[in-house]
Amino acid sequence: EVQLVESGGVVVQPGGSLRLSCAASGFTFDEYAMHWVRQAPGKGLEWVSLITWDGGRTYFADSVKGRFTISRDNSKNSLYLQMNSLRPEDTAFYYCAKDVGASGTTHFDYWGQGTLVTVSS
Amino acid sequence: SSELTQDPAVSVALGQTVRITCQGDSLRYYYATWYQQKPGQAPVLVIYGKDNRPSGIPDRFSGSSSGNTASLTITGAQAEDEADYYCNSRDSRHNHPVFGGGTKLTVL
To answer: Which residues of B touch A (CB under 8 A)?
Structure first.
């Protein structure tokens, strides 16, 4: 059974930093691209970032480019999102999602349950 | 603002057919992917590619596309289909995913 479990969401002050983690199991992690998608409370989905199967390429939404970094450790079946210079508008549930391919598509076939990041003073 | 436009809300009578649409220039070149999200839950993939359903998705869900508009059709809507539905496709400038604003489906 595929499982994606996010962790690391907390309350952080504006300008602060945070690292989210996503532990994957039930599939061959190093064969698939992975994504982070966020959802502000009561709002729609927003794609945040993509990393290819080998970590060789990463992509970011304009709203987080230059502030967020995505990485993965295939030996630990884990995905990460380093979030710096956090803003109140970054407040959201952050989901990790598995791609159906290795290099990144728009098809996310498994999602975690999300972790809540709150940026507030 | 999203490059993919969805109607904020749609309603359908129980057992009837409903079409949820998604508009955007990128849909002229790429298929839309559709996700269902129920309150307090993570999104679930329901349609991808031309008209493909992951295992476990009922065959009352189908996808289609014409020009810059993609559609998700539910034929014989059930009470359990009441949810938010999101389309996504590729951003036309950066070639990475982008989501539509979502459609809240109410089954009457």
So the answer is: 2, 30, 33, 35, 37, 41-45, 48-49, 54, 84, 86, 88-90, 94, 96-102
pLDDT per position as a tens digit, A75-88: 999 999 999 999 99
pLDDT for A74: 97
Cα separation values, B27 from A14, B42, B47, B64, Å: 37, 25, 15, 11
Q: Under a CB-based contact definition with an 8 Å cutoff, are residues A58 and A70 in contact? A: yes
Å between B20 CA and nearest CA of chain A: 16
Query: Which segments within chain A are labelled E, that is strand?
Result: 3-7, 11-12, 18-25, 34-39, 45-51, 58-60, 68-73, 78-83, 92-99, 108-111, 115-119
